[in-house]
Amino acid sequence: MEMRHLRCFIAVAEELHFGRAAARLRLSQPPVSLAIKELETELGLRLFERSSRHIALTPGGEQALRDARAVLARTESLRAHARDAASGQAGSLAIGFISLAACSFLPDALRRFTQDFPGVRVALHESTTDQILRDLEAGTLDVGCIFASPELPAMLSYRGTCLDPLIAALPAAHRHARGRSVAVKDLADEQFLCFERHFGPTMFDTVVSVCMRHGFSPRIFPARQMPTIVSLVAGGIGVALLPSCVQVLGRAGVAYRPLRDAGGPRAEIETGVAWRTDDDAPTVRAFVELLPRL
Question: Which of 173, 178, 243, 277 is the S-S candidate for 269 at Cβ 3.0 to 4.6 Å?
């Protein structure tokens, strides 16, 4: 059984006239008559009652017409879904992201992507850079919004998106919160809330480097997520050096102050996007293109 058999059958059943059905299909009448004969032979069922003046569907033909219409509808649906998937208008996109991305470029990119591709199912997974890289390699994520990584796996591509200067996050009651800015050296005796190096080597190395340039090695109190660090600062557990975009969190009990003596490119944090180099899915390409560029 071929699709042409079903199309001819439906046309004849709706027109109840071989000539009009042939004209509708832009065929001559003999191929249409042959298609009906072949279909009846394959089904072992007479589809039409024929006389010299008219034709009519048999009871079996009426049931076959319902089935034929359903088959063609499913076929057209399959084709439409395939076209949408090929153009990036359907399918799914799994995005891993660090909490910092949610404070900067990710919300706007997601808003624009979901407006442009409403048929794509987006799954968001908040995680750490090291885990996102592993998940990209394993294929459980399609795109990763991460800290710039010195150890990017060979199978992944990377592009920088943002470069944020460090600022100080201080408890609101801290003595240095009263000024408009704070000197790094004035924080030498403080406890610093920061990522463990395993979870965020870029963030850890940058904070330690800034402190070392000002003559001290920071006492680190480890945490894994930016919101956690900010909450601990609000609770008076310590201070933190964070990318400036974190200020959007606006946590009560926290004072954000610029660093007046940080200096140098090492006092900035780079974030970016990573994806599998051989992944040519339209959804991946479209999302990556919506992200800012350094």
Answer: 243
pTM beyond 0.85: no
What is the spatial distance between Cα 200 and Cα 132, in angstroms, rounded to a whole number? 11
CATH 3.30.70.2740 assigned to domain 165-268? The reply is no
- Pairwise CA distance, residues 257 & 249, whole Å: 14
> Which tokens in the block code for residue 216?
């001290």
The 10s digit of each residue's pLDDT in 270-291 is 999 999 999 988 889 999 999 9
Q: What span, in angstroms and rounded, lies between the C-alpha atoms of 19 and 33?
A: 10
Segments of the chain assigned to CATH 1.10.10.10: 3-87
Is the distance from CB of 148 to CB of 160 less than 8 angstroms? yes
CATH 3.40.190.10 spans which residues of the chain? 91-160+270-290, 165-268
